[in-house]
Design brief:
- Helices cover 75% and strands 0% of the residues.
- It is mainly α and 276 residues long.
- It is elongated, with a radius of gyration of 22 Å.
- The chain starts with 22 loop residues before the first helix and ends with a helix.
């Protein structure tokens, strides 16, 4: 063989032209990546500890710590119907936070290098992660409701409205996941992601109507809770479970979810392309 005809082995190049990848192929790639992520969970069951234990610990803690102060000693069962719907919002936020540290760790370990040479859309990697995290949120909310029923949670509306509250929590939780994915792709270490996530997490959680009625707060904090998206979600879930005006809170929650996704999803995908 003539040496001039010998060609050098082709080097793997990232596939960046997602426009050539059709919708059916994208869905197939997402499905394959979802299965991969589920298999990782099966190989590492400890990664589900937060989903399995967090709803139990938080429900017992807040019912028996705050319940007596808000509803009176011995009347914690009244507080259950207030806090459990609100904790649906907290589940989504807390679980979404773990995505940022996970994706940052994947880059550090070189896992994402495997996807660079594959003819798949960059967005499919992120969408698959969100699908799995929404499933984890659903498990956490199911456990939360189970503990709530054991403590005396009473559904005063209907099963359909309860399912609507769960669905609304999942939609909003999925939108929050984009924020933490963007943080994971931007910060240099998983510890930095976790620290920044806590700065976002704490004011949103405790400056909301999840745990206590805003009317008991100082005026400036009460005003903050009115614009806090977690308050809108907690109020919507509470109205869907206990009855009461629901339309405004539901539309505000959906509006926040849409706005967060529209802003952060393209930024996260663009950052992922650049980083990968």
């Amino acid at each position: 063989m003539n040496a001039a005809t010998v060609t050098a082995p082709a080097t793997a190049r990232p596939v960046r032209d997602e426009g050539r990848i059709g919708l059916r192929a994208n869905l197939r790639h997402i499905g394959a990546l979802v299965r991969r992520n589920i298999m990782q969970i099966r190989q590492d069951p400890e990664s589900m500890f937060d989903v399995l234990l967090m709803p139990v610990v938080f429900t017992l803690l807040f019912v028996y710590v705050f319940g007596g102060a808000i509803s009176g000693k011995g009347n914690q069962d009244v507080y259950v119907n207030y806090v459990v719907p609100g904790l649906m919002a907290m589940m989504g936020l807390s679980i979404a936070m773990a995505v940022g540290t996970g994706i940052n760790d994947d880059f550090r370990k070189g896992v994402m290098d495997r996807f660079r040479t594959m003819p798949i859309a960059r967005s499919s990697v992120l969408v698959a992660k969100i699908v799995v995290e929404v499933g984890r949120m659903l498990v956490a909310i199911a456990i939360l409701l189970g503990v709530g029923f054991l403590l005396g949670l009473d559904i005063k509306t209907s099963v359909l409205e309860l399912l609507a509250a769960v669905g609304l929590s999942l939609v909003f939780g999925a939108s929050l996941t984009w924020i933490f994915i963007l943080l994971g792709l931007t910060m240099k270490t998983a510890q930095a992601v976790q620290g920044m996530a806590m700065l976002v997490l704490m004011p949103l959680q405790f400056g909301s109507s999840i745990f206590t009625p805003p009317s008991t707060m100082p005026g400036w904090l009460e005003s903050f809770t009115e614009y806090n998206p977690l308050s809108n979600l907690a109020d919507a879930a509470r109205a869907l479970v206990n009855g009461g005006p629901v339309a405004h809170s539901v539309w505000m929650t959906l509006g926040w979810a849409a706005a967060i996704t529209v802003v952060t999803a393209p930024l996260a995908i663009a950052r992922f392309r650049k980083k990968a």
